[in-house]
């Protein structure tokens, strides 16, 4: 069956309009039902189980932290014992930053979960700390660190000895050394995921530091008393994502997964990073780009611009046909 080319162009704006109207209005969706509906189609959620068989060893871009050694903190309880709440320490602007892969991220706050949200080969630690950063375009990055029971932590004692018990309490600390939150060894696991609390927004860059932080049993118990049922989201499926690591000896990736990563690099599906090398199991070196930045999601305005452009294209062609008397058809 044939249709004139001109008639096809006339239908393009109409079809585009129906497509536009069919798009979900994400900004209008509210409540738990909307979140559940969005989660049903999301495939890059956090936290995850960081397993040796799903990791690829490679040289990763260096992490360059610039943290204040004497910044004030505002520590709040945003809703214990609710499992989606936490104890959060807000930091002033310019108190801390992270630079890597040519981008700068500013520290906004850090908070805690018990037990840990991320697993290591199926194992959960006693707690986990999240340092939340954002860049100039409001993209999010979380530097996470496992917490294990060990020696008394004097650096974090000003917080854990006076944890706010309710949402009406606020703990103000005049001077805190943010550098005490970082390990001496910055080897890590990196992947792209989501927030671990509603609305579970995806496109969050995760850097899980391999070296754990220690808190005493008493300090951990003080936190657990506020969250007797924990405040942790369960591990989510990787759905084909690859975890990158520079921890020697951790990855036991099979050749099939490495071949898949190589194919992604060749097809340009590993975007937005500095060039670096991946050491394959057979000793060969592969050049690729690190999958670490946010995937762009078109805004509704983009679809409106597309619709307007298609309409304009149809108008121009109709003018040309009328002027030149061009006719024809396509199968």
Describe what you observe in this structure.
The protein has two domains: 3-29 and 298-330; 42-253, Carbonic Anhydrase II. The chain has six helices and 18 strands. The chain has helices at 5-22, 31-39, 157-160, 217-226, 255-266, 300-324, and strands spanning 3-4, 49-50, 55-57, 64-67, 71-77, 87-90, 96-100, 103-113, 119-120, 127-134, 140-149, 170-176, 188-194, 202-215, 243-245, 275-279, 285-289, 329-330. Strands 3, 4, 5, 6, 7, 8, 10, 11, 12, 13, 14 and 15 form a twelve-stranded mixed beta sheet that branches. A two-stranded antiparallel sheet has the order 1-18. It has a two-stranded parallel ribbon with strand order 2-9. The longest helix has 25 residues, at 300-324.
Write the layout of secondary structure elements.
Layout: E1 3-4, H1 5-22, H2 31-39, E2 49-50, E3 55-57, E4 64-67, E5 71-77, E6 87-90, E7 96-100, E8 103-113, E9 119-120, E10 127-134, E11 140-149, H3 157-160, E12 170-176, E13 188-194, E14 202-215, H4 217-226, E15 243-245, H5 255-266, E16 275-279, E17 285-289, H6 300-324, E18 329-330
Parallel strand pairs: 2-9, 3-15, 11-14
Antiparallel strand pairs: 1-18, 4-7, 5-6, 5-12, 6-8, 7-8, 8-10, 10-11, 13-14, 13-15, 16-17
What percentage of the residues does DSSP assign to strands (E)?
25-35%
The CATH topology name of the largest domain reads Carbonic Anhydrase II
Helicity level, as a percent range?
Answer: 10-25%
- CATH fourth-tier homologous superfamily of the largest domain: Alpha carbonic anhydrase
What is the domain total for the residues? 2
CATH class of the largest domain: Alpha Beta
Distance between the termini: 7 Å
Query: Helix-strand pattern, N to C?
Result: EHHEEEEEEEEEEHEEEHEHEEHE
Stretches where pLDDT is under 50 for at least 5 consecutive residues are 1-23, 268-331
The radius of gyration over CA amounts to: 25 Å
């Amino acid at each position: 069956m044939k249709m004139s080319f001109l008639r096809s162009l006339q239908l393009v704006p109409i079809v585009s309009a129906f497509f536009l109207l069919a798009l979900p209005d994400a900004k209008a969706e509210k409540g738990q039902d909307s979140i559940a509906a969005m989660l049903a189609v999301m495939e890059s959620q956090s936290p995850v189980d960081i397993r040796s068989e799903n990791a690829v060893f490679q040289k990763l871009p260096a992490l360059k932290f610039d943290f204040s050694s004497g910044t004030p903190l505002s520590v709040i309880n945003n809703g214990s014992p609710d499992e989606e709440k936490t104890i959060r320490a807000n930091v002033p602007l310019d108190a801390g930053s992270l630079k890597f892969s040519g981008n700068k991220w500013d520290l906004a706050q850090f908070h805690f979960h018990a037990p840990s949200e991320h697993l290591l080969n199926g194992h959960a630690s006693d707690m986990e700390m999240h340092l939340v950063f954002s860049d100039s375009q409001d993209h999010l990055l979380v530097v996470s660190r496992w917490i294990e029971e060990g020696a008394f932590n004097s650096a974090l004692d000003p917080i854990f000895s006076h944890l706010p018990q309710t949402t009406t309490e606020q703990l103000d600390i005049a001077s805190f050394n943010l550098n005490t939150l970082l390990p001496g060894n910055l080897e890590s696991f990196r992947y792209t995921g989501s927030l671990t609390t509603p609305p579970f927004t995806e496109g969050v860059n995760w850097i899980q530091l391999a070296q754990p932080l220690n808190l005493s049993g008493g300090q951990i118990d003080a936190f657990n008393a506020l969250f007797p049922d924990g405040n942790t989201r369960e591990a989510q499926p990787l759905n084909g994502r690859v975890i990158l690591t520079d921890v020697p000896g951790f990855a036991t990736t099979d050749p099939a997964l490495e071949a898949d990563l190589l194919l992604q690099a060749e097809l340009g599906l590993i975007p937005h990073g500095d060039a670096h090398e991946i050491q394959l199991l057979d000793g060969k070196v592969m050049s690729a780009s690190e999958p670490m930045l946010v995937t762009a999601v078109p805004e509704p305005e983009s679809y409106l611009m597309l619709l307007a452009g298609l309409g304009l294209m149809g108008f121009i062609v109709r003018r040309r046909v009328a002027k030149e008397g061009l006719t024809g058809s396509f199968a």
